[in-house]
Each structure stands twice: as structure tokens, then as C-alpha cells.
Design brief:
It is rod-shaped and about 95 Å long. It is mainly alpha-helical and about 70 residues long. The longest helix is centred in the middle third of the chain and has 61 residues. The protein is built from one helix and no strands.
């Protein structure tokens, strides 16, 4: 009886270890995915902050003589 319980405990420990490894891989995947998503959203916003004034200045210079 005692050997049966200890054998089952060993099997459960192996399963738990395998689940922990799988969950850690998933957690790292989600972390990388979140970081990439944030970078791909924030980086264009930062570029637009500097690009919009330049574009406005360029267009206003083009149409300066017409107004």
C-alpha cells in the first residue's frame, strides 16, 4: 500500500514538473508577445510626434507664396 502511494506521488511530481516547464514557456511567450505589441504601438507614436511638425512645416512652406 505504501509503495503504491509513493509510486503515485512520484508520477504526480513528474507531471507537475512537466506542467511547470510548459507554463514557464507559455509565460515567456506571452511576455515577449506583449513587449513586441507595445513596441510596435508606441514606436510609431513616437515617430509621429516628430514627423507631424516636420510635415506641417514642409506643407506650410510649399503653400506660403499662394496664400
Amino acid at each position: 500500500m505504501e509503495q503504491d502511494i509513493s509510486a503515485r506521488l512520484e508520477v504526480l511530481e513528474k507531471k507537475i514538473d512537466h506542467m511547470y516547464q510548459s507554463i514557464e514557456k507559455i509565460r515567456k511567450y506571452f511576455l515577449v508577445s506583449t513587449i513586441i505589441t507595445v513596441v510596435m504601438f508606441i514606436l510609431p507614436l513616437i515617430v509621429l510626434i516628430f514627423a507631424i511638425p516636420y510635415i506641417i512645416h514642409t506643407f506650410s512652406g510649399l503653400y506660403e507664396g499662394l496664400l
